[in-house]
């Protein structure tokens, strides 16, 4: 079966504020799909230690524009891809072309295709579930992890009363869900028009400039380009039976064996992920004794509110381990 994909015109990315980076592209593969083209940034010295910066919904590598120069300036090679369906990457037009497994496979395909090693994974939002699962599949490639405002979808009953945003099984067959999370999921499926900038503006601690918000919308000239944007939220596992929750539990078991350095760098203004920093610190052996940080004055997209600070945290962590 042919899976048709759209490609956002290059002109949409001309003269974006504070995003002077050279685009790079590579074909990536996932089961049941034709190869698609993934965009990524490759900045800093080619022989430096690698930082892999992964974004989530509804952003793209533009989110890391303040982080990249800090890391590159500290001698770190920065690889920052756009998930398929986002940014300058190809955008399959059918919602069902996007699965959690394929997002993992596409990212793994980039990592193995570029033969990245000694990787420091920097994961925010869906970048955690995707990136941690790539780590579980390719553990020898990863040297350390920085978890920043991210989660791992498991719906585990043990999460009860541990998270600001509840998603946990109760007893044998019930689930406790945060109302705001359900509202968000339903909105993304029902809204006639979905704009990435609306979510950035709603969660930023400091309102971004209009030209910055426009840059978040640049990948999506019209709604025909937004299948991946919509579907990523539909992929949120809300029950233990969800295939994504099973993947999350398998990935958590891998993290529970991960003894290399693991740092949490969560902001003080993100109820959607609050509580997960403590869970990762408890469950990941490599988190023991690390200088975990809280980044002040930042919302869910802490790269937007405190990108330079996050960059320094990552660079210091690489230098110190």
Automatic annotation (TrEMBL):
Broad enzyme group: hydrolase
Keyword Hydrolase listed: yes
All copies of domain AB hydrolase-1, residue ranges: 52-166
Superkingdom: Bacteria
SUPFAM superfamilies: alpha/beta-Hydrolases
EC number: 3.8.1.5
Name under which the protein is recorded: Haloalkane dehalogenase
NCBIfam families named in the record: PRK00870.1
InterPro entries listed in its UniProt record: AB_hydrolase_1 (IPR000073), AB_hydrolase_fold (IPR029058), Epox_hydrolase-like (IPR000639), Haloalkane_dehalogenase (IPR051340)
Keywords for the protein's UniProt record, in alphabetical order: Hydrolase
One GO MF term: haloalkane dehalogenase activity
């Amino acid at each position: 079966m042919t899976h048709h994909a759209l490609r956002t015109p290059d002109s949409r990315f001309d003269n974006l504020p504070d995003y002077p980076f050279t685009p790079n592209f590579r074909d990536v593969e996932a089961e049941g799909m034709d190869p698609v083209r993934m965009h990524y940034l490759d900045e800093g010295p080619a022989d430096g230690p690698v930082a892999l910066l992964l974004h989530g919904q509804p952003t793209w590598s533009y989110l890391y524009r303040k982080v990249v120069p800090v890391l590159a300036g500290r001698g770190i090679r920065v690889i920052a891809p756009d998930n398929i369906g986002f940014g300058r990457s190809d955008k399959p037009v059918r919602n069902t072309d996007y699965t959690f497994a394929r997002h993992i496979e596409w990212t793994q395909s980039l990592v193995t295709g570029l033969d990245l090693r000694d990787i420091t994974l920097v994961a925010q939002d869906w970048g955690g579930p995707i990136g941690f699962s790539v780590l579980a599949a390719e553990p020898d490639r990863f040297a350390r992890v920085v978890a920043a405002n991210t989660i791992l979808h498991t719906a585990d009953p043990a999460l009860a009363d541990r998270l600001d945003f509840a998603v946990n099984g109760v007893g044998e067959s019930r689930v406790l869900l945060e109302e705001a999370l359900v509202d968000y999921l339903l909105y993304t499926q029902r809204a006639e028009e979905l704009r990435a900038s609306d979510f950035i503006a709603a969660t930023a601690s400091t309102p971004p400039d209009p030209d910055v918000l426009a840059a978040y919308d640049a990948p999506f000239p019209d709604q025909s380009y937004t299948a991946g944007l919509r579907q990523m939220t539909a992929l949120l596992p809300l029950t233990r039976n969800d295939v994504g929750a099973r993947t999350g539990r398998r990935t958590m078991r891998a993290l529970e064996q991960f003894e290399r350095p693991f740092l949490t760098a969560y902001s003080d203004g993100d109820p959607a992920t609050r509580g997960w920093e403590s869970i990762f610190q408890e469950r990941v052996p490599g988190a023991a004794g690390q200088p975990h940080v809280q980044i002040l004055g930042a919302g869910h997209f802490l790269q937007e509110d405190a990108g330079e600070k996050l960059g320094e945290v990552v660079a210091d962590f690489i230098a110190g381990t």
